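User: Teach me something about this protein's shape.
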Amino acid sequence: MKHISAVAVSCLIAASALCAEPQTDVSITHGASDATLQGVARMTATIVAIDPATRTVTLKSAAGKMLELEIPNEVRNFEQLAVGDVVTTQYRESLTLSLVDKKAQPSRSENETAERALAGEKPGGTVGREVTVLADVIAVDRHANTVTLRGPRETVELHINDAAHLKRIKKGDQVKVVYTEALAITVQPAGNK
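Assistant: First, the predicted structure itself:
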C-alpha cells in the first residue's frame, strides 16, 4: 500500500501542476457536538501522446497545459491507454471533530485502502486512508479562537471559526478527530466524455 500511495500522490501532484485551477467543492456541516469540513477537487486532461518504451504519457489540460507523466509498472493495463483518452483525477478529504462523552486514553489509528483496475480495463483505481485520533483538550483561547489538543504523538493548536462550537469546548474535554482522504483516477476512452 505504501508504494501505491506514493504513485497516487505523484499522480495527484502532476495533475495539479497540469491544471491551472481544478474544479473544487467545499462544504461545512455542524451538528450539536461535532463539525465536519469536506472538500473535493477534480481535474481532467486528455492523452495526446504515448511512449510505450518509457511508459510515458503526455497529457493536455483544457487550458492547453502539457505534462509528461511516467506511469510506474504497478499501474495495470498501460497497453489499454490510447491517444484521446480522458484522464480524470478526483481528490476528496474531510475532517470531523466531535466531543467525546467518555474519557479514554489518547489514541491514534490509521486504515488504508487501495483498489486497482481489473485486467483488461483502462488503467485507474483508488487509494485512501482514514486517521482517527482521540485527544485531550489542554487549552482553549477564546480571544484567538483556538483549541490546543494533545494526542498520543503530538500537540496541535486548531483554529475554530464557529464561536458557538468554541463555547462548548473546555479544558479537560476529550475530542475525536477523524481525517479521511481518497484519490481516484479514471480513464475514459476518447469520445466517451
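Now, about its shape. The two ends are 30 Å apart (CA to CA). The chain has one domain: 2-188. If you'd like, I can walk through any region in more detail.
User: That's plenty for now, thanks!
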